[in-house]
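We modelled the chain as a single entity of 182 amino acids. Its sequence is:
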Amino acid sequence: MTTNFNSAVNAALKKLEELERRGVIKIGKSVVRSISIGELNELIDLKAVIKKAEHDYEAFDQLKRYSATLIRKKQSLPPTLLDWITGYLDDMVAPPKRKAGAPTKGAQINMLLPQLINSVAKGFGLNPSRNDTSPGTSACDAVSEAVIKFNKTRDAALRLTPESYSALKVNYFDAKRKSVFN
């Protein structure tokens, strides 16, 4: 491996550690989930969403996440939402049964790692990806190594995915196709 590639791995690892210190990684999965199910805002009819949340898990989850977003931003909750969230915290409001199958996680829109790949490629003059038979010195390889190193010292809940070169390559080109880097 070249010194430039090793520097790219170290820079990617430092960036991941910085994002962790700033709290981005901890809440990142939650934010992505919120985006994937639809973010609520102050213009919605809270009473209607609360009524729907009695039987619709997605609406329930939206309310929960909207409450968390407002609290995280240190904004006041509208009285209707405050009543609902305190009812939930007091076990007076129970979540409805979730539909069978895995919940929507929104990994398809999580652009943290593809953006890091793009940054490493530009910052260190590396190709974003490589031919599968070429030496592993692309930006995807560097970020893969950084994610693996990062994950070694983290609890499962804080580990980043994906960490393999092939999955990162797919995510990178998906993000590029969606014009994330423009």
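As a brief sanity check on the tokenised model: The CA atoms of residues 8 and 123 lie 8 Å apart. The mean pLDDT is 85.
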